[in-house]
Structures are given as C-alpha cells and as structure tokens.
Amino acid sequence: MSKKKREKPHRQRAPVPAPASDSYAEEILGALERAGAPLTLAELREGLAIQGRERSVFNEALGALERAGRVVKNRAGSFLAARRIDVIAGSIEGHRDGHGFLVPDDGSAQVFLPAPEMRQVMHGDRASVRIAGKDPRGRPTGTIVEVLERSNRRIVGRLHKEHGVLFLVPEDRRITLDILIPPADAGRAKPGQVATVELIAQPSKHAQPIGRVAEVLGNYTDPGMEIEIALRKFDLPNEFSKKSLAAARAMPEEVRPEDLKGRRDLRDLPFVTIDGETARDFDDAVYAVREAGGKNAGFRLMVAIADVSHYVRPGDALDEDARERGTSVYFPRRVIPMLPEKLSNGLCSLNPNVDRLAMVCDMAIAPDGRVTRYEFYAAVFRSKARLTYTAAWEMLSKEKANQDIKTLYDVYKVLSQERDRRGAIDFETVETKMVFDANGKIERIVPEPRNEAHRLIEECMLAANVCAGNFISERRHPVLYRVHDVPAPEKVAALRDFLAELGLALPGGEKPAPKDYAQILEKIKSRPDFLLLQTILLRSLKQAIYTPENLGHFGLAFDAYVHFTSPIRRYPDLLVHRAIKAVLANRKYEGIDWDEVGRHCSETERRADDASRDVENWLKCYFMQDHVGETFAGRVTGVTSFGLFVMLDGYFVDGLVHISELGRDYFRFEPTRHLLLGERTGKRFRLADRLKVKLVRVDLETRKIDLVPAEKE
After folding, report:
1. Cβ count within 10 A of residue 618
2. CATH code for the domain of 108
3. Per DSSP, what are the bridge partners of residue 489?
C-alpha cells in the first residue's frame, strides 16, 4: 500500500527575522534567575507585566524555553532556570536490561541512569537529573532529582502469578518494572491473559508501581492479538471521536454541484490510478500527453491528488483526529487509517468512473526530463481506470498498453534520466510481504519485486512534490518540508576509513554531495561485496524528518521538497495542500505552530514504523516456532558488540548469533569496520558475510530468535 516511499547542493538562504517570542526569552530567564524561589506562571506574568495580547507570545517563548531545557517546570507547576539549579531536564529512555538514559531537552549528550535510579521512573517519563560523575565507559551518569511528568497511564502486557501475587509484565521491554495488581483490582483477569492496566500508583525508590486491570484483550496467541497489543503498546489512536464520525456521516455520498465552484473541469481527460493489488485508498491519478512536435517534443504531465482539504478543515473534529494520528498505520492484514473510511476509501479516494475533487500539479516536461513550468489548481476529474503495478507493467512489457499508458512510460524515462543527471541516490532494497492462510497464520514470506510501473508512479510523484516545494518556498509561505539533511561529518569520516581499507574512495571531499554517493554505488554494483558496501553507505545517512526549515533533501538531491501526494494517509501532505490553497488565494495559512507540528508528524511517523515493525517481528517469531532445530543459510545483516544478526535465506527473518556462540576465542568488536575479530584465531565475522546457522530458540514475548553457527570451531 505504501508506494511513493523513496525520497543539489543547497542554496544560501536569506536570513529570516527572529520571531517576536525570542525577545521574551532572555527576560523570562533573567526573572527566574533573579528570583529566590521557583515562580508560578502568574508570578512570572506579573513580574514581567505581561498583559492582553502579549500573553500568547509570552506563552510561546516560555514553551520554547521548556522544550530547549533552559527552563524546568517542577511538579508543583512552578518554573525554574535550569542552570540556576544545575540540573538537566529531559525524557527517560528505558533499556530492557534495567538501566536507562535521560535524553536532554537541550540536545546535549545523553545521561546514563543506573538500574537503581530507573526504579522510580518508566520509559517516556520526564525528569530532571543531576550529573553525578562518569561510568566506566566515560558516559555522564546521573541521579534523578525530580520526576516532572508521567507519560504512562495505561500499560499493556501479559499477566503472571507467583506466590499468590498477580502482576503484569509490560509488553514494552523498555519498561522493566512489573506492575502489581491487588486482588480487588484484578476483576476477572487470569494469569496468561493479555491485559491493559491503569496505573493507580506510580513507582518510587522503595515501591513498585500498582495497577488496576482496565481491559482484558484475550489470550496471547489469539489471531490478531499482536496488533491489539501494538495499538496499546505504542499508544496508537485507533478509534475516531464521536464528533469525527458524525462529521464523516454528514458528508455527501458523492461530489455535489456546489463543490465544483472555481474548479477546472478535467473529466474528459483519461486519468488513471496505478497502485498495489491490495490498495483501497487512492491518493493520486496521472495523465500525460506529448506536446506538438513529434518524438523530440516534451510532455505535459498532470498529477491529480485527492483534495482532502476541501472536506477536512483546520480545527474541525476530522482535522483534530487526523493530526493526532499523523499518518495511517499499515499492519499485515489491517490498516489504522488517518481518516474515517467514508473519506479514506470513499469520498476522497480516487475510485474509477466517479467524479472526484483534486488538487492538480500541471507540469511541462522538457525532452531532457527537466520541469520547465508548472501550475497548481483545484479541479474535478474522473479516473478512467484503476490499474495495479503488475497489470500496468505487463501491458507495457508485452507492448499491449494503449497510447496514454505508453506516453506515461515515456515521461518516466525522461524523468529517470534527469534523476541520474541530478545524482539522486538509488539504493537497491528488497520489499517483502507475508502470505497468510485462512487461520491468519503465516504460510510464507516472499519478496515483492519492484517493476517499472512502480518507478513510473514514483517519478511522477517526486516531480509533483518538488514543484510543490518550489512553489511554496519561492513565495516564502511556511510549510513542513520533508528534509533529509547532509550526513554528519563523523559518519562520513567513518565511511571513508572503511572504504579506504577496500581500496575505494568516496568523492566529494569533506562534504560529499548526493551525486558522489550515486557515483560510488554505480562503481561497486558488480562487486561480490556490493550488499555490504551499500548497507554501509545507507547507514551513513541521516533519517528524513518534517520541519519548517528548508534544508533540502540530500538523498533525492532536491533543494526544496515537500510531501504533497498522499493527503489521505499523511497529515503533512494535508498541510501542504492548505498552504498551496492559501498562496493561490493570496493569503496565509495561519494559526499553526509549524515547529511543533513538524516534531509531532516526525514522531507519529516513527511511532507508526515502530508499531508495524513490532507486529511483523512477532508474526515472524510465531512463524519460525515450527522451524526450531532446522539449519539455514543466511547473510550477516548486523554486527554488534554482543553478536551477529543473520537474515535467513528464503525466509527474510533475522535472528541473533550471540558472541558466546562464535567459538572458543575472545572476539573484539570493531564498529568502524563492521566486524568481530577473534583475538586468538584471527577469525572474522563481517557485515554481509555468508553463514550457515541453526535455529535453537524462539521467544515470542521478547521477539527474539536465537541462532548458533551450524559448524562451530
């Protein structure tokens, strides 16, 4: 269902004036540092004579100082200057081994928290910490001064009973404290069941957390239980509000005459959708025609995107639910949509042979693949066909496609040439899908090959996204950019050291450009260690995020890039549509904190990815239970200080070979070389090496698959 996934040297931008809230920041800090005690919000406002309309700007400045860790709010709700009390505020990140870390709000180095400190907090809580020294690895070590905010109210897990005491073991292994359940608060829950508990007492230095059973989900291996667990484990919103559902029900069943006002009528043009076989929500449709002048002429490419913003208005119930979700979440056999089904699969979905509202990116494509002009406008159109990638490629490869599809393919070819000239990075990855039997159990995991039809749609969507980014940035309207920043210098240095050992060099000096990555990828394609090298190159890059600051997209080699093409399933795309409409109407889309919503959308994207991955890992473990004792060939996909991760051929499942199983030797981990080296034998285990392994253990609860070498020393 997810299809347009893949995402120039950056121009110097003119300085942007500081926001009004910045002028309050130093005043707030000064007031807090002069005060002899913490100040309440009212005392701060009174001391700085904040009145009337100044309050919103003042509140924005105070919130920014809190997020930056320069101001700390204590449990009484009063504010303190962090440097005055010599503490660091941040969020707690737990580790399955019992220790944890404080991730400071100010972006400074993480602080190690030993297991005894973690007894009074849980993963996700906010706390203030005082540095107490350094651990043997040289990391700053802290002690918790105060718990500022509790993030966990409900926790999902499995119930156990020992010595007559019922307790819940959290599914999120970053929470290592068991939750005690008093008999009066257990209801009808039984040991072995999966349940959600509501905390009635948070942990402290001397007491475990206590909970009340709020919901019994069923038995651990019930069909679909892995998804029910993930929804609660990752706090994924999965029920629409009553107001949102009522708003969806009130929507018309079809496009009305009054909806067509101010729209171009494109209903006679042969637009088509091309998606995966199982897709149900269709965001985009495409149409292309060759300009006059024969085979050497350029093209007109039109990308029509569902006009969700016509139905979902800022601040309404549908918008609030969509913003909270941030994105649709895709699990095997189930989707948690961003919008109610009436919109996502009905009124906003570009189903064939029905009128639909769209925002259109209308582009002129030169014969060399450059976009020479573009235009955005609202339209009404009809998709003439719902094609799948497989069907479209079969028509093209067997020369059975009609002229409209052939023209789209010709457009793709010139856009692809421009991609190569631009130097965009193109990694070769293998997508997989799970095939289930009638009982919901995995039969097999199979590769899902990409064909030219996938790439055709991808290039059309990239072109529209770039036009949207340029359109908004040139008019200096705020928006969420899809930013893929340049690689960190230390990552580039480590990459160069690794490549140098193999007689290879990454071009581009200290600051390589995307084309430098693309160049070396092309150079190593025929090498037997290509997978290893590609993995190392990929891991040197940063993660893409949403932010109002335009830093360009390194991987795709674009100066300005936004997500415009999937407003049914991504909230940032909906915001982009609103920004474009505001620009077209000579106004500004206001009333939104772009920094905050950028952080939120980046977090919801990661949350959705983590939840999907967790479910897939559980299903893979369940699948592999039947294969314990069998021997497999595999490839090393990860090297760590504690062992090797190996992907099993034909199964696309990773398991761990613990370092203690590698042989009678001491193995030294060399992270920059991605290998484990035996000190006595000189034996090496390196990323992408081939290895024959035996499956010895599967643990569903921890999602762990344990392997041992099939032939040990």
Report:
1. 20
2. 2.40.50.140
3. none
Q: CA-to-CA distance for 475 and 464, rounded, in angstroms?
A: 17
Q: How far is residue 594's CA from residue 477's CA, in Å, rounded to a whole number?
A: 11
Let me know whether 310 and 162 are in one domain.
no
Looking at the fold, whether 276 and 377 belong to one and the same domain comes out as: yes
Amino acid 35: pLDDT: 80
| Cα gap 501→673, rounded to integer Å | 9
Tell whether 172 and 297 lie within a shared domain. no
Instruction: Encode pLDDT of 50-66 as tens digits.
Output: 887 788 888 888 888 87
Give me 17's structure tokens. Answer: 């004036």
Indicate which CATH number applies to the domain containing 57.
1.10.10.10
CATH number, domain containing residue 175: 2.40.50.700
Least trusted range by pLDDT, from 339-348, 425-434, 444-453: 425-434
> Hey, which bits of 340-441 come out as E strands?
355-365, 371-388, 432-436
**How many domains are contained in the chain?**
5
Q: For residues 558 and 482, what is the distance between their CA atoms, to the nearest angstrom?
A: 10
Inside any domain, residue 1: no
Beta carbons of 710 and 692 less than 8 angstroms apart: yes
Render pLDDT for 189-222 as a digit per residue (tens, 0 to 9). 999 999 999 999 999 988 999 999 999 999 998 8
For residue 84, the model assigns a pLDDT of 67
What is the distance, to the nearest Å, from the Cα of residue 52 to the centroid of all Cα atoms in its chain?
A: 39
Residue 10 in any domain: the answer is: no
Q: Which class for 545: exposed (0-12), middle (13-18), buried (19 or more C-beta within 10 A)? A: buried
Region 333-347: what's the mean pLDDT?
96
> What is the DSSP pairing of strand 79-81 with strand 71-73?
antiparallel
Task: Sort 428 into a burial class: Cβ within 10 Å, 0-12 / 13-18 / 19+.
Answer: exposed
Tell me the residue range of the domain where 423 lies: 242-479+564-608
- 88 falls in which pLDDT band (50, 70, 90)? confident
Give the other-Cβ count within 10 Å of 327's Cβ. Answer: 22
In a domain, 542, yes or no: no
Q: Per the domain annotation, does 487 fall within a domain?
A: no
Question: Same structural domain for residues 459 and 364?
Answer: yes
Tokens of 554: 């390194």
| Token pair recorded at residue 352 | 């064939």
Residues written for the chain: 713
- The dihedrals phi and psi of 512, each to the nearest 5 degrees, come to -65, 145
